Sequence to fold (502 residues):
Amino acid sequence: MDNTKKRKIVRNFVIGYLVIQVLSIVVYLGFWSLHPEGITNVTNERMSPPPIFPDYNGTTIPYNIAPLNFRINVPSDECYAKIEGSESEVFEYHGTNTIRFKMKDWIRLTRANRGKAFFVTIATKIGDEWTKWAPFSVYISDQAIDSHLVYRLIEPGYEKWHIVGIYQRNLESFDEQPIIRNDMTGYNCMNCHSFCMGDPGQMMFHMRAANGGTYIVQDKKISKLNTKTNGTISNMTYPFWHPSGRYITTSVNDIKQFFHSVKEKKMEVFDLESDVVVYDVKNKEILSKASLITKDAFETFPAFSPDGKWLYFCTAPAQKMPENYDKVRYNLCRVAFDPDRGEISFPIDTLVHADSLSYTFPRISPDGRFLMYTETAYGQFPIWHPDAEIRMMDLENRTAMDMSALNSPDTDSYHSWSSNSDWVVFSSRRDNGLYTLPYICYIGKDGKPSKPFLLPQEDPDKYDYQLYSYNIPELTKGAVEVSPYEIQQVAEKNKPEQVRFK
Fold:
């Protein structure tokens, strides 16, 4: 090919490229000349914001949360959203019925407006006509939330399941990774994960059936334990770490369940027996002098205080079960704990009396100020009770806080604090009554909750097609670093080490 032909080809390529760039600019300018406000032909104006899912209208969010992508739940051929904060540029998005933020836009918006609100104005189009909706606001707290959330994903199949897994989600993005899945360990059950003060390097969980045992992770080492002893009625069940990492308090339960025949109630989980014990992680011993083992009472759902000096638990007079399942009501109590001696001391301090209701899941804020717990009509396993609500007590004066902004008409149950005591994540069935989903709520310094918001997903429709419940949402200060493969190797190759009852 001679130089003349080469120059001609290069010239034509350059001309073609310039034409494309000019046309792009013309189209862009033409679009914005037709859409100076992003929309034209506004024929209807609504005085209220449109219904969106998830409902982020009027919520308070941490500045480091992932983008609040949402779906507009009104019929439309096209939608437009203008997002503006007082300290940032205006962002505009178009779609059919879904608004998905670019990560770089979201970071600029949330970082620039920490401690302030941003506003979202939406317009929807059908045919040639636009409807403009009233704006809604989202307040951006300058308090961060812990970076990761750990939960179990399980089909709500009651007795049978296929895939069960414990997962960790980076709350600052949409990255979700398995910690362990049961298709790696013989399709067994795995549950009851727990962390020491949100430390991802100190973790505990159980496997049942194949490869059964209690698994404890510390210093990147994985221990597999048999925790049923001649002094306890079962393996360790519902755990909670001592802040030192030296102890784990846990219930031991003889658990049963049955199914209701009316649609309003699905099932009941109850105990034939239950006790509370303390496990010494260092010496691999269950300590009798730190345990509550009685025949005339059911004890369950223990938790240590953040200073490690109190052991909280739930207790009810023992009853004949299942005949009296709806008559069992649990008090919320505590006893003093001596971490140096590994012993509890009496008397029992009853914080919430079960006069006509039942109280479970005690969790103390890391700053020691508030006690959060779950209230239900009866029993100790409220995740299937539509009446279950979350309550909170100010431990400085033992007054009850108003939690109406957090609760819903359906089940609100399990909860976990962020390490700075500003946020809680809790399980709720408020969206469809069938699946528990994780909601996040800001708790003010005065103990007042804000309007909760659903954990954001990259695709807002994910909750419609992912038919799994989010079980035991636990906040952690980072990612769990042991890999699923490492856990699998311990599960398959190691025999469980027998713990002692001392």
